[in-house]
Design brief:
Layout (H helix, E strand, L loop, with lengths): L1 H54 L5 H82 L5 H39 L5 H6 L1
Helix pairs in contact: 1-2, 2-3
């Protein structure tokens, strides 16, 4: 059950990472569009101001054309500044995604892979633990006449050490479960069963 859940989560996280990469590309394109618009508007405003200055010396026309061209140039500059601000926002968002979200998703994908490995190792150790326990029981049944207490003591010590090792690894894993649950609940589309499993 855990293997399927971990594989599903890993695939979902990799999909999210791919989506984040696409979003970064789109945001870079938006930033470039805003910068192009800003440049174009600044050029237009400069041209309008130049015409306004030239028309300033033409009698009667200067009374109408100069204020209109100057107002239009001012409007273009305001819009250019707004586009510049949007470009800066897009750049900040790209930086955040590239430097924070995407590496975090990659780290989480790696953590899921490690968790999968942890469970595989634990499953293998528990199987060996069970086999050794059965072998020790058989040995104890077969050699009851001589040194039975000694064999029981050896069996007990072997099982105690293995249990301590397994218990410490389980405790280490349990320590990170709240963080994993929190991260998983933040992912939209994650099945409730997968979150409950953790």
């Amino acid at each position: 059950m855990y293997e399927e859940s971990l594989v599903f989560l890993k695939e979902r996280l990799e999909e999210r990472q791919d989506q984040a990469g696409l979003i970064v590309t789109e945001m870079r394109q938006l930033k470039e569009n805003f910068e192009r618009k800003k440049k174009k508007l600044e050029d237009t405003a400069s041209t309008k101001r130049d015409f306004a200055f030239i028309l300033l010396f033409v009698p009667v026309v200067n009374l109408i054309a100069f204020p209109l061209l100057e107002a239009s140039a001012e409007s273009d500059l305001k819009e250019a500044n707004a586009n510049g601000a949007q470009a800066a926002i897009q750049e900040a968002a790209v930086t955040k995604l590239s430097n924070t979200l995407i590496p975090a998703l990659q780290a989480f994908v790696n953590a899921i892979a490690e968790a999968s490995g942890f469970f595989s190792v634990m499953e293998e150790k528990l199987s060996k633990f069970e086999e050794r326990s059965e072998m020790a029981k058989k040995t104890l049944r077969n050699g009851r006449e001589e040194g039975e207490n000694h064999k029981k003591r050896l069996h007990y010590l072997m099982m105690k050490n293995k249990a301590r090792d397994i218990k410490s690894k389980c405790q280490n894993f349990s320590a990170v479960l709240p963080i994993v649950r929190n991260d998983l609940s933040a992912l939209t589309g994650t099945p409730h069963l997968a979150i409950q499993w953790f």
